[in-house]
Amino acid sequence: MEYLAKSSGETIVDHTKELLKRLAILKKLYPNALKNDGWRLLEIACKYHDLGKMNRKFQSKLLEGKSKIEGEIPHALLSISMLPFDELEEEFDDEQIRALTYSIALHHARDFSEITESNYDNEIELVRKEEDKFPFYLLGLKRDSEFEKKAVGRFYERIIVQNEYFDLDARLSSSDPEYDYFVILKGFLNRIDYAASGGYDIESPGRINFADRIKKYHKDKNDDFEWNELQKWTVEHNDDSIVFVAQTGMGKTEAALRWAGNNKTFFVLPLRSAINAIFDRVRTQAFGSKDESNEYLSILYSDMSNKVIDNFREKNNVNITNYKEYVERSRQLSQQLTISTIDQIFSFVYHYQGFEAKVATLSYSKVIVDEIQMYSPNLLAYIIYGLKIIQKYGGKFCIMTATLAPFIVDLMKEKGLKYKLPEKEKPFLDKKLNRRHKVKIFHYELDIDKVMEIYRKFDGNILIVCNTVNKAMQVYDALFEHIGNDVHMIHSRFIARDRKKKEIEIQKFSNDHLKGIWIGTQVIEASLDIDFDVLFTELSELNGLFQRMGRCYRRRNYVGDEYNVYVYDGGEKNPSGIHGGGRTVVHYGMYKLSKNAINNIDGYLSEEEKIDLINNVYTTKKIKESDVANDYIEEVKNTISYLESGADDAIDRRSVMKKFRDIDSIQCMPYSVYESNRMSIKDKISFLNDYYKGKNKSKDYLDKKIEYSNYLDQLTVAVPTYIVYEVENIYKVIEVGKRNIIILSKGFNYSFDKGLSLSKNIDDEDSNVW
């Protein structure tokens, strides 16, 4: 008799063999991911995890197309009843067997609260009747009668087995000695099972060295190309976790990839635009025009579909099968190098149901964290606590940044993180590139008179960075009256289609050093590879200021008489977006410390002086002694304590993802965009709703579903939830399958030049952080 594992008709034997194939691939590619005992236990887990599905109720459920049958208990509980405990005790210790048993029993999240011991025993007795018919030999399992009698008989000794290996009424907790082994074993079993069920490869088809390929790319362009001091240092320490500070333009990305070697790697960045930029750069330099990049490299963030489709279009490779497989492999962490946002990788810190798969993957991976100083206190806590867990289970990390605050180092040491620093903890600086910025501080709000004065003097270009979109728009309007189309703007309030065009335009404008002015916000700080001649900026705090300065004279020294960086600290008023309470773009206390630190700067500011400022201002002592900044470190510590206390909570994953959003936002479509594309939108929504109702699901139809969904996404912009859910701010809500498209009211204006303008219904406090 053939016992089914899936409603598709796949049998238990065939499904288990698919798991074993992926287990073999994983072991071949990453042999050090587990020790010998671990690989053996994982093989046993794969072979036994679904055997409980041979019970009559489960088989009837599949054959009858039902979701549940009365009296059925989770098949995993029946699977562990078949484990050969006598044999296992000869090979493994009690902690290993307990971890194995729990990893199988809990490999699906199921509710055991209503299962009684008598019900459980009865179902075990019933499944015993099926065992004589099951072809165990096809899975390399021996089941002679004497062996079965011992194994099942031992299981029926309820007190012994429950106390030693499994308790129906209890879950393992982080305080149990076998917990760590269980996390890894269950995590690997889940990953292998997901890959087998999804029909995709568990890992990239081999391992490559991205840095070697990038070196070849540069060598082909310049035969004299060699790795620099930083890049040589990282590869010398590729067996360690490392932390380093390096000047902009020193090749931090290449240095980190040299450290990563041919290992499985996760590259975490704070902004999606930065992720897209690094993805494009690595893909171009490591693969050229070859399609193989899709086998090894992926991006990962919540709405990555637009970028993925663009990638497939470039490869002339857009079809439903390739697209779905690529997205699934990315989400299941199957690629060798994944470039991602923090929420996609570090969500495991909340120990949600199923977090073990992510931890198991990270246990044999390398994790690169770029610009750690850009994260809020809560997100910084997630990173520090997450790195502690990664290191505990065997993974390694690389923190690379242009500036590293001493208080962050203190927090990492306090949590016991182990890592290597460069000799004497010195940053990597380019001595030939140390006169980039001549700085003038103004103790009042940003004004356009100085901008116009500089604009009229020379033929170069000017970058203005504001803390909020609202302020950027005010500056744009004022400048437009004087210079018209020579002023441009980029920020986060453009629809996706226009944002992409803006990013291309500003990079071309910068590369060609055209005359004109661009105005932006924080999106410029760590995402766009641009190099302007003059920078005007509001003060946010030191880290943000130095990131913004890195977009002016990026890879060249400055020798002019005039200043090329103008900083406005607000004077008696705060710059836009800065508040002592409520919503604020940066912590008010960190802004105040920064304002005091730069008060007397007038002239050239070297790279050493920038780092000295960070080292002298952002110390644990000074922050704690500050009346306005002393809660910053406490917020980080309290968040870490909260995460540690909830290690056994197993909360819902969706709740976890929401916690990672400092400002929860919703994708919305501006009214004017909706009106100008109404007919096309209507047709595509009608088509998609037919699809979701089950009509015409041909292959071509699926291709169109992806294209049309992407089309709608390209017309939306992220808007903070607190703004959207004011009733007067919504024109209409259109249902598309399981999602809703919110059309903003006419009170919001939208244009390609300015983006989404604020509604009159939004109060002053909200508008000042938008």
TrEMBL record:
The keyword RNA-binding does not apply. GO terms for biological process: defense response to virus. Residues 5-195 form the HD Cas3-type domain. Keywords: Antiviral defense, ATP-binding, Helicase, Hydrolase, Metal-binding, Nuclease, Nucleotide-binding. InterPro entries: Cas3-like_dom (IPR054712), CRISPR-assoc_Cas3_HD (IPR006483), CRISPR-assoc_Cas3_HD_sf (IPR038257), DEAD/DEAH_box_helicase_dom (IPR011545), DEAD_box_RNA_helicases (IPR050547), Helicase_ATP-bd (IPR014001), Helicase_Cas3_CRISPR-ass_core (IPR006474), P-loop_NTPase (IPR027417). It comes from the Bacteria. One of its GO terms (molecular function) is RNA binding. The keyword Oxidoreductase does not apply. In the N-terminal section; belongs to the CRISPR-associated nuclease Cas3-HD family. In the central section; belongs to the CRISPR-associated helicase Cas3 family. This is CRISPR-associated helicase Cas3. It comes from Ligilactobacillus ruminis DPC 6832.
